[in-house]
# Entry
Amino acid sequence: MSMFPSFDAYTPREIAQRVQDVCMLKARLPFLQLVMLGILAGAFIGLGALFSVLVLSDASLGFAASRVLGGVVFSLGLLLVVVAGAELFTGNNLLAMAWADGRLPTQDVLYNWVVVCAANFIGAAGLAAVVFLSGHAEMNGGAVGRTYLQIAVAKSSLSLTEAFFRGVLCNVLVCMAVWMTLAGRSVTDKFIAIVFPISAFVAAGFEHSIANMYLFPLATMLQAAAGQPAEVAWLWRNLVPVIAGNLVGGSVLVALVYYVIYRRGAGGASGSDRARQAPDG
Amino acid sequence: MSMIPSFDAYTPREIAQRVQDVCMLKARLPFLQLLMLGILAGGFIGLGALCSVLVLSDASLGFAAGRVLAGVVFSLGLLERRGWLRA
# Structure
């Protein structure tokens, strides 16, 4: 380590070290903090989705302009999570890296994922309730509300396979965005790292489980308000396969792949670390 | 804490500390300064809203383009306000 401060972005190898260090801090958060940060993350991602749907509701935009602009504005969500601080289930799939290194026992990782995922749901569905009560969906002559309903129908008519693999692709991009924010030092760095992966996954129509936890409850409330039968089949038709896909994409295709490349045998966790934690995991 | 100065952005925990510190300064501002800064902030946010309405007045923009551009130009208001408070 040099004694001089560096302005350089962190190298990929340094990112891997930073991800592990951050994961250890995340895994040790007290329950109340974890839940509250999880609720915030759900609401933050919901705000990104809200901005995105606002753009998508404009039928006069061409296909590409609508998808790309709708994706760019969605970046708000992850920017809030990364800069302001929150615990997001999809990003926390990177905990698999510290697990693979033997620094986190399996039950700690699963505990974090379950608590954060549930808290994200509370935050996202809570935001949906507030947005519903605000009458925001009536904007653009009601087109915003109709867009929520169309999106919900399109998402729940995906086959389980499609939902799963769209979830995989989505979280590869989201976890790469989180990964790259750890290369950056400034808020500007982090913003630039976020915009392309996030706008790409939104534009491509990939499935983000936490964003869906905002979109589906809001669509259900709008259906109920319009006197239509409220549809809740999305819980198992979409949310379950998408959560599974997000898990595989983030923890296997990003965290474990980079673990093998940069961390395996790097001496981050000594053999004694592994042995010490063996009784736990 | 390292002795090497860091160029990294403040962490969320550091943000919370800084918010508290700034709030203490704000709460102790003398009346005349507080009032004048308050008048400026009203003016600044108004300028942001002015730019925003300028964009919204263009009926030829589509819904999304009009809303998003109007939102982006409104940022002027908070930016000016923040710059002033730092000084």
Summary: Residues 161 and 173 of chain A are 19 Å apart (CA to CA).
